[in-house]
Model the fold of this input.
Amino acid sequence: MAIRLHKSGALLQLRVGGCTKAYCTAAAAADKTEQVIQIMSKEASGTIGYQLGQQMQLEVFSLKGFNKAIAELRKRKPAPKGK
Done:
């Protein structure tokens, strides 16, 4: 999936990990995660593009609260793998 950020015009490519009826999960390459977080932290909104069947979907999204959410995630230790 691709994300175009509105303020800077940055284009981010994310790899889709899986989808349900309600949402999909996607991630940046492991060595690019921090860079993507820094870029997104300076933005207010963007447009996400992805293919759904034979149609291209474009949706505008807000990044309001992104910085607060990242700050909270950084306070918590990840659970050990395998538990």
